Every structure is written in structure tokens, then in C-alpha cells.
Amino acid sequence: MKTYTPFISGAFLPWQGETIPSIDPASGTEWSRVARCGASEADAAIRDADLAFRKGPWASATPSERADMLDALADTLEIHWEELVEPEIRDNGKRITEVRGQFAGLHSWYRYFAAEARKLTPETQDNAIPNVTSVGHWLPYGVVVAITPWNSPLMILAWKLAPALAAGNTVVVKPSEMTSASTLEFTRLAHQSGLPPGVLNVVTGLGHEVGEALVRHPLTRKVTFTGSDFGGRKVAEAASVGVVPTTLELGGKSPQVVFADCDLENTVNGVLSGIFLSNGQTCVAGSRLIVEAPVKDALVTRLLERARGLRLGDPMDPATQVAPLANEPHLRKVTSMIAQAKADGADCLLDGTQTAQGMRGYYVGPTIFDQVRPDMQLWREEVFGPVLAIIPFDTEEEAIALANDSDYGLAAGVWTSDAAKGARVADGILSGTVYINHYRSVDPGSPIGGIKLSGYGRELGPDAIKDFLQVKSVWTGTAPVPDPFP
Ligand code: NAD
Q: What's the confidence (pLDDT) of residue 316?
């Protein structure tokens, strides 16, 4: 059985220490192991990345030379991405159709930020002072620590790594202890593409052990984190010790607001994709269905028909429509939240724990609850699973208030054939992203991120590279300095 070991200074470390099992969620059996790194590996990885930042080919590369290296990485990914598919599926159980879709386009995030690196030039600043010019120079931070979750390890890593490298930083990655394999296979390819040693190091293990040691390390200059709001708080606390800036991409409880004048089939597709793709394990999962009373019965009937027909199965089988949840603790969390919703009095129209009965592995099928109240756990807390909660509304104001009655603010959907109403409601909803008659798209050119408990900072978009840069203002006098004490 393969043991995945940390990657530091361009090579996989030999490993004699403790390991953590990687469990295949489709069968519940161990398929590989991963090194349980601690403070000493964190220290080695950060020191090596700091050296690569200060000396050697990366340190002396111009932005356009760095862009060439990112393009070479993108070229390698275009040829070799299929090698990454199986390790990710064995680790997190995401179905092959979705993983292949993500990985066939993995190169495009790196190409986008390679192009952004080529645009980096000093910027002349406006100032009102005579005979003095000021120019802003873009400085990379140094060592960036990137901490990723288990749901889409390589896509989320790309959103961090591509802009961080384009900006000239070096990066130490800590993938989820549940899903480290694909990150290490990717790192092998990145070095094969010519990325200099130390520019991308990977340490594996538990968040509160090696993750926190990375964040607290005195040479860490910036942290970018995607995960739960609990993990985000811990990371922000640890980063505050060294006054290290953080970007936090956290959870969500995203509303789908459906008006009676919507295109019903279009809306059904959007709501289904919002909550049941990746088995609900996406940060933007549209888990709260807020539906105008006159269309509720028709919409729910159609959703139930479609959800009942979805095929649970092996994530490696392209015919599978619902794959397992990613790990056993998560299965316990999702099933206990379903049980709590029933105990709280919500009406379970479709029970995915029943659908999945008798299946080996960590399966829960699509689950739909009606008669939900805003004070219920199911309405307030992130399930991160295939569980949809429904509340009807009568007025536009009520719909916006229900959408905003959440501690989170990551994404939202609005479904209506009235463009002015769509724009009004989008304007009224507090979240980092709103989709109108559409759901779930992400693109390198459009920023993504949250407000409230969904985090702060933005990934992607033309400004994302600046999240990994600091401005140094350089002032130059062009006339003699007058005597200050004439
Ligand atoms: P998690 O917070 O448990 O773990 C995320 C990562 O943080 C893991 O690598 C973990 O080891 C590490 N970690 C945990 N505690 C740490 C600590 N004290 N110090 C340093 N590192 C620590 O989250 P998860 O369960 O892996 O992921 C699911 C969560 O991620 C969900 O809440 C989901 O909404 C969120 N998510 C958000 C986005 C987004 O873009 N906003 C995208 C995907 C997932």
C-alpha cells in the first residue's frame, strides 16, 4: 500500500514516522496512507520555501519568466491531468464525471494567472505635492501557507497557488488529512514541469498539529485558507500572533429564491445542480429553497421526481449520479443533522438515509425537507451534504429577508422571468455571489468569496494576484529640498 510522504525542496521525503489512513469512501476501506507531519516538517518546509524565495532561480525570475513557468505547468497539466483523477476519487469519493470535468480544465487557472503576472508593472501614483513623483511597486509577501479542504482539493489549490506563484511568492501547502494524495501527485507534475525546488512544498497531517505549526511559523508571511468557519477562526487566531494577513474562504448556507414567474424546468435544473452536485459537498450548495407560495407545489413535485430518479453508485462509474459522502465523520454529521431536522418537526419528503440503506461506503442520497422553520438547525447550519430545506414566501420583501436571515453570505440564486425583479432581489441579498437564472459557475475572471461567517478576501478575478502582493510606495524628489528652518 502506498504511503504519501511530504514534498520538500523538490523531493519526496523518506518517512518512518506516524501515518494517517486514507479511506476510500465508496468502500470504507483503506487504500493508502499519508505522513502525519508535525512542527519539525513544518519548519523544514517553511525554511526551504523562504530560501527559494530569497535565492536561486525563482528569486531572480522576472514576472514574465515566472509566467513562463506557470504556463509550462499548465502545459504539463493539459497532458497529464488524467493521472490525478483516480487519487482524488479514492480519497474523497467525488464522481468521475465531475472530477474529469474539473481536471480537464485545471490548466486554465494557471494560464489565467500567468497572464496576470505579465501585466504586473509599477504604477505611477497621483499626488498633490509639487516636484515629487511617487510610484507603487508590487512586492510578493514571501512564504505563503495554503490550507485546503477535502471537497475539491486540486481546484481549490489552483485558486490559491496560481495567483500566489504568479505574484512571486513561494508556497507551502497543507492539504486536508483526508485527501492529500492528489495534491502530492500534482506536486510531482509541477516539478516535472520545471518549477524550481522549494517554490512549492507540501506537508501533510492534522490541522491542529502541522497546520497550526505552519501558520504560527515566524517566516510565514501570508495565509490563505479554505475550510469550515471553525477552522478559519483557529487559523485567523494563530495568524494574529505574527500579524500575518489571512484570506478565509469558509462555509455557506446559500439561498435559492424562486418566484412564481420562473421558467420551471430551468429552475428545477438549477436547484438540483445547486444542492445535489458533488452530493451537496460544495461551499456554494444552494441548501435553502425559498419559494413563492403559488409555485411551491409544482416545483417540489418536479424536484422530488427528479431527485428520486438519481442513481447512487460507484464514483468511478460514469453512469453514477450520486457518489458517497467524502468520509465517515462527515457521514455521521450529515445523518445526525437529518435526524435532528426530523426531531425538530420538519417534514422529510425524501429521505436519503433510507435510499442509501444497505450500500457499502458512506452513502446518503438526495434528501428534501418541507415544513422547515427559520429557527431550525437545518435552516441555520451548514450540512455540506445533499439536504434541501424548503420555506415558502408571499412577498418579495419576505423573500429577501429570509435569504438574508443567515450567519453566512457566500452565494445565492434568484429565479424569475422578470429581469427588473431579478436585479432588485440580487441587490437586496447579502452575499459574495448572486446568480440570476443560473447557478454555480466559477471562472478565473470572476472573484469568489464570502461575507459574514463565509469569510473575507476574494479569490479569482483580476485583483486576486494583488491579494498575494503588497505595495511599496517609492517617492522621488525632482527639485531641491527647501531648507525646513530658514
Ligand atoms: P476544515 O476546516 O475541517 O479543514 C480545512 C483544512 O484546514 C484542512 O486541511 C484541515 O486540516 C485544516 N485545519 C483545520 N484546523 C486547523 C487549524 N487549527 N490550523 C490550521 N489548519 C487547520 O474544513 P473541511 O471539513 O476540510 O472542509 C469543508 C468546509 O470547507 C465546509 O465548511 C465548506 O463550506 C468549506 N469550503 C469553502 C469553500 C469556499 O470557497 N468558500 C470551498 C470549499 C469548501
A: 97
